[in-house]
Amino acid sequence: MRDVRTRENAHAGDPGLAAMQAALAAEHAAVYGYGVVGAWAAEAEEKEVRTAYQAHRARRDALRGAVRGLGGEPVAAAPAYALPYEVTDAARALELATELETRLTAVYADLVAATEGEARRDAAEALREAALRAARWGGEGAAVPFPGLPEQQDREDGRDTGPEVTAGGTTTAEDG
After folding, report:
1. In the predicted model, what is the mean pLDDT of the chain?
2. CA 164 – CA 158 distance, rounded (Å)
3. CB–CB of 7/76 below 8 Å?
4. CA-based diameter of the chain, in Å?
5. Contact of 124 with 67, CB cutoff 8 Å
6. How far apart, in whole angstroms, are the C-alpha atoms of residue 145 and residue 53?
7. Cβ atoms of residues 86 and 36 within 8 Å
8. In which residue ranges of the chain is pLDDT below 70?
9. Which tens digits make up the pLDDT trace of 105-125?
10. pTM across the whole model
C-alpha cells in the first residue's frame, strides 16, 4: 500500500497544487451533491441540473489532469459526503445546489490566488460559473458582489455553512 501522506508532503510547498487539490476535492463533493439535487429537482429544473452535474464532472476530470501535470496524485473522492441538511423536496434540492455552488466560489477564489497563467484563467472561469449557478439556483439573495471571499462564507440567515474547504484543508466551526 502506498503512503499517500509522503506524496502529499512532497508537494506541501506548492500552494498552486494544494489549492488545485482542494478544488478537486470540492468538485468531488459537488458531483455527489448534484446526484442528490437531481433526485429531488422539479421536472422544470431537470435539464439545468443535469447540465450543472455534467459541468462539475468535466471540471473534476480536468482538475485530475492538472494535478497530475503538476506532479501530484489527485485526491480521491470519498465514498459519500455529509449533506449540510436533509433534502426532502425540490425547494431544498435547489437550496443544496445553491450551497454547493457558493462553497465552490470560495475554493476557486483560493485557486485563482494560488495560480498563474492558464491555470488562473481556468480557475477564474470556474469561479464565475459557480457564482452564476449560485445566483441562478438561489435567486436574488444568492448573488454576492465578490463571491468566494471569506466574508461571504457566513450566511446572513444564520444557517451553519458546514465545513469550509480551502487550499489549506477542511475546517469546521469547532476548529475556529
Report:
1. 82
2. 15
3. no
4. 49
5. no
6. 25
7. no
8. 1-12, 139-176
9. 999 999 999 999 999 999 999
10. 0.76
